[in-house]
């Protein structure tokens, strides 16, 4: 029964080995043995084979983890499936890819680079606003979730592979298919060393086919781009998309740490040079079976582009949902946007600088709805002690950012949406999400902190300002704010379970000026 159930489990159950509130440890390599002298963190009772799986049945992992932490303390040890199924990445590791990351990361997602994509964002926000305006009707709700997702995806794809490519739709389709493959948890995920599990499951084949299609697609684009660059005399830096930047860096990089074309393909697909181990795993990936041996971390990081676009889109949708559920906050935010942009006929990024209340709304959304509720799995590289417990090398550590943001020990009225809580300068109010306040870590903290924060927030701010400036918003006839469905769907991100369907009333006409960069 355990296996049958596990085969149907959603992807979030890959996150079984979690830590609640602070970290939770998955001792992937070894558990404390009698006489080992180690003091391991407390665990709930376990079953043979599945370990602690049953404790998470029926609830989303971040919620189940929070409840477990209330009983067992802030640091817990959970075990799931094959304890020895450690993400092992043989071969060369660390320094070369760290060097690569240090060289490439600032170029890809720096503030300067994010700023250079401003024309694309302002063009795409025009598309979003016009498409919403064209559907506005007092009688029929607009599917705002769909519109917002298309805005972020289109804008991100343009930033990565440029607006010039005729293949944008294919790229979007492949990414969408990738997202569908990722959320399924399969037998090989649970028993990566079992050949039978590999044979019985359809998922390895799906992943391999999709990988092949994506690599073939990226190949074509890279070849087209190289041919174009060979013919062109020069490309202005401000015209570069992320692929141009990577190809330029490939020429410039020293031979000690070369940026290979495979690296570039991986960045475009995974959009993450930041995961050195995953990149190594990718290079060493000879077959799907190996893929599954590295599976938990690898698949979490697969399609980080999709995850980056998904996180921003999810956040905008939660912010709009919370504003609809809290009309006083909505009114205050709209008054600010319309006051600050009075006399303008469109929203530009220059106009966002004085939207202080909107910033509080964004912070409060990040607190209640962190897009990656359990951050990404971290691996303990050397034995250490946390809260008096031993954390062995190889343990997988996950942090329940969602529970931390709702911990009554740190937040008053933690379940309520109160942007004003961030208004105070000192104390609780002064908290920020930049990775220094550990009660508020929606982007993580430290070396693995989200490198796409500015890129993501640029979309969130512009979209919210545009939607609040141009339109008034109402719930469909007969629905009270407290009746809104605020349930989260299962997945890597805390995506809304139901689409946001809202009545849109045009207030400030959407200017055709928005298309000036198109
Ligand atoms: C509002 C939007 C976003 C949120 C809330 C968010 C949140 C996060 C979180 C929580 C992590 C894990 C940090 C950890 O485990 O310590 C992460 C990692 C990451 N994010 Fe974001 N993210 C967002 C947007 C983006 C965007 C737009 C991109 C890329 C264009 C991006 C790229 C990445 C990458 C590459 C990592 C992996 C870093 C590593 O493993 O070292 N993110 N993000």
Automatic annotation (TrEMBL):
Keywords: Heme, Iron, Membrane, Metal-binding, Monooxygenase, Oxidoreductase, Transmembrane, Transmembrane helix. Heme binds at residue 450. Its cofactor is heme. The chain crosses the membrane at residues 12-29. Gene3D superfamilies: Cytochrome P450. The keyword Isomerase does not apply. InterPro entries: Cyt_P450, Cyt_P450_CS, Cyt_P450_E_grp-I, Cyt_P450_sf. GO terms for molecular function: heme binding; iron ion binding; monooxygenase activity; oxidoreductase activity; oxidoreductase activity, acting on paired donors, with incorporation or reduction of molecular oxygen. Belongs to the cytochrome P450 family. This is Cytochrome P450. The lineage of its organism: Eukaryota, Viridiplantae, Streptophyta, Embryophyta, Tracheophyta.
């Amino acid at each position: 029964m355990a296996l049958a159930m596990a085969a149907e489990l959603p992807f979030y159950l890959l996150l079984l080995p979690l830590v609640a509130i602070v970290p939770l440890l998955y001792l992937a390599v070894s558990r404390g043995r009698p006489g080992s002298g180690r003091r391991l963190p407390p665990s709930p009772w376990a079953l043979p084979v599945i370990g602690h799986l049953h404790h998470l049945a029926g609830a989303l992992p971040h919620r189940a983890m929070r409840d477990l932490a209330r009983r067992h303390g802030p640091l817990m040890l959970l075990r799931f499936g094959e304890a020895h199924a450690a993400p092992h990445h043989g071969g060369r590791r660390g320094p070369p890819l760290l060097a690569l990351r240090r060289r490439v990361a600032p170029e890809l997602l720096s503030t300067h680079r994010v700023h250079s994509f401003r024309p694309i964002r302002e063009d795409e926000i025009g598309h979003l606003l016009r498409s919403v305006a064209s559907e506005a009707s007092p009688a029929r709700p607009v599917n705002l979730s769909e519109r917002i997702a298309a805005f972020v995806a289109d804008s991100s794809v343009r930033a990565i592979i440029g607006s010039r490519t005729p293949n944008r739709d294919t790229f979007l389709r492949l990414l969408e298919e990738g997202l569908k493959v990722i959320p399924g948890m399969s037998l090989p995920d649970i028993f990566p060393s079992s050949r039978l599990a590999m044979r019985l499951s359809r998922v390895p084949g799906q992943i391999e086919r999709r990988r092949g299609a994506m690599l073939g697609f990226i190949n074509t684009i890279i070849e087209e781009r190289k041919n174009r660059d060979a013919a062109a005399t020069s490309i202005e830096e401000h015209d570069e998309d992320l692929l141009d930047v990577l190809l330029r860096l490939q020429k410039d990089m020293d031979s000690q740490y070369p940026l290979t074309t495979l690296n570039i393909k991986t960045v475009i697909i995974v959009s993450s040079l930041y995961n050195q181990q995953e990149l190594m795993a990718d290079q060493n990936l000879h077959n799907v079976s190996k893929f599954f041996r590295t599976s938990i971390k690898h698949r979490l990081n697969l399609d980080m582009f999709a995850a980056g676009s998904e996180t921003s889109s999810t956040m905008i949708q939660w912010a709009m949902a919370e504003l609809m559920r809290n009309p006083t906050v909505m009114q205050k935010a709209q008054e600010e946007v319309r006051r600050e942009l009075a006399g303008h006929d469109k929203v530009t990024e220059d106009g966002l600088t004085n939207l202080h209340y909107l910033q509080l709304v964004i912070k409060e959304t990040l607190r209640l709805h962190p897009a990656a509720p359990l951050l990404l799995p971290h691996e303990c590289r050397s034995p250490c002690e946390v809260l008096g417990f031993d954390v062995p090398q190889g343990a997988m550590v996950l942090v329940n950012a969602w529970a931390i943001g709702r911990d009554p020990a740190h937040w008053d009225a933690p379940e309520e949406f109160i942007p004003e809580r961030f208004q105070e300068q000192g104390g609780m109010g002064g908290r920020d999400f930049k990775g220094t306040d550990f009660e508020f870590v929606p982007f993580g903290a430290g070396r693995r902190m989200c490198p796409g924060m500015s890129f993501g927030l640029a979309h969130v701010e512009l979209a919210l300002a545009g939607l609040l400036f141009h339109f008034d918003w109402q719930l469909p006839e007969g629905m009270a704010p407290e009746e809104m469905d605020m349930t989260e769907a299962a997945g890597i991100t805390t995506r809304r379970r139901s689409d946001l369907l809202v009545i849109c009333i045009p207030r400030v006409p959407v200017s055709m000026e928005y298309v000036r960069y198109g």
